[in-house]
Design brief:
Elements (H helix, E strand, L loop, with lengths): L5 E4 L5 H12 L3 E6 L3 H13 L4 E5 L5 H15 L4 E4 L14 H23 L6 E6 L12 H21 L3 E8 L10 H9 L9 H13 L7 E4 L8
Family: Belongs to the short-chain dehydrogenases/reductases (SDR) family.
Keywords: Oxidoreductase
Protein name: SDR family oxidoreductase
């Protein structure tokens, strides 16, 4: 049973993060629902969890600010008097075509998608008891290049490497794993015909859903003999002939 355990889910006010927060609440976690700009979404998630008899609280933080990462962890720990699971879901997905990407764009993407998960994990590890877990959300673009999103893919490849390094550094007390979603939500503005073509090019013949990612997180949160792994939830794209 996970009753009484505390999870912090970053980026939990929308999209995949929301599905993860609600799935963990269904497993009796008390959930810190982090958001940056999606206050209304975060409030909806908290209300939905409480309506089901769960415990949740929204926490605002701009994770591109290094100091805010540590404050967020401290605030969640203080509010719930504990922290057992960190899910690093918050991320940004910005187009960065080669030849047109500025240093400022590169730094901002790395700060949110790679530096923030590291700093959050570092802060959480100081507070977590033995038997706790960290789950990072990577991306299939770490291994499947999308030229229009190259810096995003570079950052997520870093998340996968970070997962292995943290797993080694924090063993045996804290397990660290990652989930690498495939196409579970279309980028804003993607035409319907491109989405359909992508689904047809995927072995399972569909795009995924946020709930597919949430199920993988739930598994890794309790998989007591698994650490340092990245679980691809991509409909089989890595095994295409």
């Amino acid at each position: 049973m996970t009753a009484g355990k505390v999870a912090l889910v970053t980026g939990a006010g929308q999209r995949v993060g929301r599905a993860i927060a609600e799935a963990l609440a269904a497993e009796a976690y008390r959930v810190g629902v982090h958001y940056r700009a999606s206050r209304d979404g975060a409030d909806e998630v908290v209300a939905a969890i409480r309506a089901q008899g769960g415990d949740a609280q929204a926490f605002a933080a701009d994770l591109s600010d290094a100091a805010a990462c540590e404050r967020l962890v401290d605030d969640v720990y203080t509010h719930f008097d504990g922290l057992d699971l960190l899910v690093n879901s918050a991320a940004g997905m910005e187009k960065t075509r080669l030849g047109h990407t500025t240093a400022a764009q590169f730094d901002a993407i790395i700060a949110l998608n790679l530096r923030a998960p590291f700093l959050l994990a570092q802060a959480a590890a100081r507070l977590m008891p033995a038997g706790s877990a960290i789950v990072n959300i990577a991306d299939h673009m770490a291994e499947e290049p999308w030229p229009d999103y190259s810096v995003h893919g570079i950052a997520k490849a870093g998340v996968m490497a970070m997962t292995r390094h943290l797993a080694a550094a924090l063993a045996p007390d804290i397990r660290v794993n990652a989930v690498a979603p495939g196409f579970v939500l279309a980028p804003p503005g993607m035409p319907a015909d491109r989405i359909e073509a992508f689904a047809k090019d995927t072995p399972l013949q569909r795009i995924g859903a946020p709930e597919d990612v949430a199920a993988a997180v739930r598994y890794l949160a309790t998989a007591g003999f698994v650490t340092g792994e990245t679980l691809f939830v991509d409909g089989g794209r890595r095994v295409r002939p």
